[in-house]
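Deviations from the work plan: none for this task. Representative record:
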Amino acid sequence: MSEYKPLKFNVPEPTGRPGDQPDFTYVQIPEAGSVRRPEIDVPATDIKDLATTMIRVMNTAGDAVGPWAEDIPDEALLNGLKAMLRTRAFDERMMTLQRQGKTSFYMKCTGEEAIAIGHKAALMKGDMNFPTYRQQGLLLSTDYPIVDMICQILSNEKDPLKGRQLPILYSARSHDYFTVSGNLGTQFIHAVGWAMASAIKGDTKISSAWIGDGSTAENDFHSALVNASVYKPPVIFNIVNNQWAISSFRGIAGGDKATFAERAHGYDIPSLRVDGNDFLAVFAASRWAAERARRGFGPTLIEWVTYRVAPHSTSDDPSKYRPKEESDAWPLGDPVLRLKNHLIARELWSDERHKQAESEYDEEIRVATKEAESYGVMGAGSSPKDMFEAVFEDLPPHLREQRQKMGV
Amino acid sequence: MPQMSMIEAIRDAMDVKMAADENVVVFGEDVGYFGGVFRCTHGLQQKYGTNRVFDTPINESGIVGSAIGMAAYGLRPCVEIQFADYIYPAYDQIVSEAARLRYRSGEQFTAPITIRTPVGGGIFGGQTHSQSPESLFTHIAGVKSVIPSNPYDAKGLLIAAIEDPDPVIVFEPKRLYNGPFDGHHDRPASNWSKHPLGDVPEGHYTVEIGKATTFREGEDVTILTYGTMVYVAEAAVNETGINAEIIDLRSLLPLDVDAIVKSVEKTGRCMVLHEATQTSGFGAELAAQVQERCFYHLESPVVRVAGYDTPYPHAQEWDYFPGPARVGRELKAMMETV
């Protein structure tokens, strides 16, 4: 007889499956304002505790409290709320387009709007973002033309990417938005390279890397962190922990008992864990990390704690793998409602203005959609000639021949 | 004209480009202070500083991935993967990112990066210091692949690669770093100082990417080859007396189809020859091109001579490596085909 018991194989399971009551007791939520705000030159080792707590600014009454609440301009908040409403209206309309068969595919960011929009507000023109497919707020909070975004989604004759790319994988260099790839995690290391280049050239621009909780398991997550650890370039690592990677809960990415923010510690990279549905906290933490990077103190990793309210994509049905009521039970609430309540409490906003803004953005996006549809839907109006262009700067002989055979 | 080994020519190419363009940066494992495990970057860090030439963590995906980010910023990275056998961790970054950046972004972002990597066998490198993975890259739309066979071309192609607006992989046959090698492992190795192709001009010049060169003119059969196999083909020709035309492709993608067609139409016979394993190797593409374009000129089937479809062995190096004896036998058999 062996003195050892048979070993057991561990496969983590979420706290709720379809039919179960949602259970978020695992989310430890400290009081708003209770987490300290260190100096921007703080060594990583001095703020290890900030990777296991949660920076929050708005309390349940909607008041902004604590050290992270200081010096947040009203304008940033008002613009942020408007951009979140605009993004939500955009997502709804694009979902409809997909249901109508006018585009093949769409992905919403419902519940996560505060993160991209609050972060973008803390950056400067020229700071490059390396987004995933769920940071549309980086564009929708700017003056990037909505019609261009919809034309990309429709793959029509005015698609800036000429019908070559799957819907929502935008590219907008003019608005500091790096070309989105379908391959997960790859852009995390690109952001580091970009920041290394900025440092090599003695520039003052910084970059922001974006990744989801699931994709932190990709190799390039490690590639990015190890390079950042070595060269200390001006990069901000954003991990959007929305608890779900399609149907896999964060535990399958190794993020059940340990936080994603804690992963930075082995690389000597300071990290913060932040309430991703608290717009004020998002703005304040982003500004802290951006200032830190721009002053030459190196990279910062931020885990944004949030919840993926929407289906993963238009091809997904979350009721097959998680409790139906889970999104309603998410303890950090809705980022739009929370900021709205805060601004109303401060008499900077009102229910009427909120309703008015909602209908204004709905109308803006309706009109833009109509215009975009006039340039074609579902690939109509795209040119097969464009298929051969831009593989290389110049058309090599073999591609010229293939194009000629096609007769275009 | 200065005499250079292939190593010196490669180093000189980077030196020329770094002096001319301050956006050119060089990095990889051991390329900085130490100057590279093959000495290809020797002295560059001392000359240009750690901002321009530096060591990296052992992370090929990180090397290529950060190069792509730098290129998006506006730099011209020239990176090294220590052995082509170790390029696979960077495959996703090369295939999914570098090769497609221009296409998928509507030309908003491009990846003018150069990836240098030592390739090929004949050095008792075993399974992971001998591979020739070029066909894994010629299959990819959006990335160019070149492979020099001598110091002159090595410098000219590398300068052209660094200046190219698209990603270019430069496969450097490490067996040719110090001298030409014809597969006669039992004879003393020669070095480039005794070879006319070791004459390398100082300063800037380029060898055009996409252009083959006729290494040896002949009438009886065309041998399409590249890298170390150019010299093996030459030895086989000398030993059999068969008057073969040897085309050194130099550039695998884009491929110089015109040069291939011109030669095969003249000779009427074609052998494709490479170190890489045969099945789905680059030779299959060459054979198909010749069959499609030269069918009515062919007097015998296109013959492939390649590495066997096995991992690259250690002890059986010279059984595996397609040497002059094997190439010669195949040449004779071809000539006997009516």
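Chain B touches chain A through 46 residues (CB under 8 Å).
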